Amino acid sequence: MRLLLIEDDLPLADALQRALRAEGFAVDHLASGKQAVLALESGEADAVILDLGLPDMDGLDVLKRVRERRIATPILILTARDSTLDKIKGLDVGADDYLVKPFDVSELLARIRVISRRLGTMPDTQIQLGPVTLDTLGHRLLVQGEQVTLSRREYMLAKALMENAGRIQSRQQLETRLYEWGEEVASNAVEVHIHHLRKKLPEGFIHTVRGVGYTVNK
């Protein structure tokens, strides 16, 4: 799942990006409302975390513009505005959720997991396919009950494939799940990660659909 974080408090944004990446999300960050509107029009983000107190335009105006353009990307407001009226206004304008600062990161992560389940990108906290189990809460992959050590990219790749079991994922789709804006991506990066991941999974678990992409069976 790819998240767009719109937050002008850079220390907070850095901390949130670290926490979200540790959960296996790809996270892009912007500090400008106008840039956020343009980014959302591209359709690359699966969900958005939106601060309201942005330097160039109010976050509610960002939300209004996005919804007026019929962009349905789920948006979670993250703000210090804590009155009931503020919450009602945000939800009425089109927010999917509203979290007040200061907040517990674990609560934010739980709310994002709820959004993921609504989107169908995280159908359950545990996905079992034959002898392989993905525990998205514990960030673990188990083969026949034994935990397998994965790099961050390998975990994200396993998650992307297993959440979409039965559906072919192209190299471009997988790159979008694994890499963020500005990251240099080698032309064979996905193939290299697939190669290493295959060594840690049962033989034949990941299937190559030549010229199209990769898949795992349901």
Blueprint (SSEs and pairs):
Layout: E1 2-6, H1 10-22, E2 26-30, H2 33-42, E3 47-51, H3 59-68, E4 75-79, H4 84-93, E5 97-100, H5 105-119, E6 126-129, E7 132-135, E8 140-143, E9 146-148, H6 152-163, H7 171-178, H8 189-200, E10 206-209, E11 213-216
Parallel strand pairs: 1-2, 1-3, 3-4, 4-5
Antiparallel strand pairs: 6-7, 7-8, 8-9, 10-11
Give the number of domains: 2
CATH topology category name of the largest domain: Rossmann fold
Low-confidence blocks of residues:
none
In total, the number of strands is: 11
For the biggest sheet, the summary is:
5 strands, parallel
- Percent strand equals 15-25%
Shape: elongated
Structural class: alpha/beta
Helix content: 40-55%
Rg is 18 Å
Amino- and carboxy-terminal Cα gap? 20 Å
CATH architecture of the largest domain: 3-Layer(aba) Sandwich
Average pLDDT: 90
Order of helices and strands: EHEHEHEHEHEEEEHHHEE
**With helices defined by DSSP (H or I, 4 residues minimum), what is the helix count?**
8
Tell me the strand order in the biggest sheet.
Answer: 2-1-3-4-5
CATH class of the largest domain: Alpha Beta
CATH superfamily of the largest domain: Response regulator
Description of the structure:
The protein is an alpha/beta fold and 218 residues long. It folds into 2 domains: 2-119, Rossmann fold; 126-216, Winged helix-like DNA-binding domain superfamily/Winged helix DNA-binding domain (Arc Repressor Mutant, subunit A), CATH 1.10.10. Helices cover 41% and strands 22% of the residues. The protein contains 8 helices and 11 strands. It has helices at 10-22, 33-42, 59-68, 84-93, 105-119, 152-163, 171-178, 189-200, and strands at residues 2-6, 26-30, 47-51, 75-79, 97-100, 126-129, 132-135, 140-143, 146-148, 206-209, 213-216. The strands form 3 sheets. It has a 5-stranded parallel beta sheet with strand order 2-1-3-4-5, sandwiched between helices. Helix 3 links the parallel strand 3 and strand 4. This is Response regulator transcription factor. Residues 124-218 bind DNA.
